[in-house]
Amino acid sequence: MIDKRLVIIIGHYGSGKSEFSVNYAVRMKDMFENVSIADLDIVNPYFRSREKKEYLESIGIKVFDSSVKNTAIDIPALPAQLMGVILNPEERSILDVGGDPVGARVLARYAEQIRNVEYDMFFVINGNRPETSTVEGAIKYLKMIEETSKLKITGLINNTHMLKDTTVEDVEFGHELTKKVSWETDIPIRYEAVIKDAAINIKNEEILEKLFPINLYMREEWMS
C-alpha cells in the first residue's frame, strides 16, 4: 500500500506522533525529491517537529512552523504557506497536528481543501497512555478527532513505547490493542512504529509485516 501525497499525523498528547512525523518525513525524503512537513501543533509546547527544523532542512526537507518568528514567545499561529503545502501536487507533505481534539480544530479550518485532494490521516496509538490504553478509550478519542477535524482517519499506527526502555512486550501489547481498534472501526493498521533497539528483537510476523523502525530524533542523548 502506498500512502497518499498528503499525510496527516494525529494522536493523543504523549503518543509520540511528532517523533513518528519526523521519522516519516525522513523516510519520505529517501523516496521522493520534494518533501515538506508542517508543524500545526498549537497545543503542546514540548517535543514538536519544528524543534528539528535545522536537521530536517539540512537533509532537504522543507519545514513550515509558526508564522510568528520569535522563539521567545509561543502564539498559536499557523504557517502562512499551509495552503500551498496542502494543494501542491509535486510535493509529499506531512502535517503534524496537535495531540487532542482541540488541536484537531486546526484541520477543520482546511477540511474542505483537504477533502479535495488525496490524503491519509493516521491516528497514532500509544497503549501506555492512560487515555488510549483500552480499546474503548482509543476509539472514543479517534471519534472525537474525526468529529472535530471534519476528516476521516484512514490508518492506525501502533506506537506503544516506553522510550529507550521499550520492550518487545510493550510493542506486542500495543499491537493487540491497535488490532482490536482496527476490527471495531474497520480502519487498517498502517504502521507498527518501534524504536530501532527494540525493533531488532521483534519476531511477531504481523508486526514485522508493517514494521516501521524509528530513531528518537525528538529526545537528546541525555534524556531518558
Task: Give the structure's gist in a few sentences.
The chain has 224 residues and is an alpha/beta fold.
Structural overview:
- The chain has about 220 residues and is an alpha/beta fold.
- The protein has a single domain (about 5-215), classed as P-loop containing nucleotide triphosphate hydrolases (Rossmann fold).
- Helices cover about 35% and strands about 20% of the residues.
- The chain is built from 9 helices and 8 strands.
- The chain has an 8-stranded parallel sheet, with helices on both faces.
- Helix 6 links the parallel strand 5 (about 120-125) and strand 6.
- Helix 4 (about 100-110) packs parallel to helix 6 and helix 6 packs across helix 7 (about 170-185).
- The protein is globular and about 40 Å long.
Radius of gyration: 16 Å
Looking at CATH, the homologous superfamily is P-loop containing nucleotide triphosphate hydrolases
**What series of H and E elements makes up the topology?**
EHEHEHEHHEHEHEHHE
What profile does the largest beta sheet have?
Answer: 8 strands, parallel
Which segments are poorly predicted (pLDDT under 50) over 5 or more consecutive residues? 68-76, 220-224
Name the structural class: alpha/beta
Q: So, CATH architecture?
A: 3-Layer(aba) Sandwich
- Alpha-carbon distance between the two ends: 35 Å
Tally of individual helices: 9
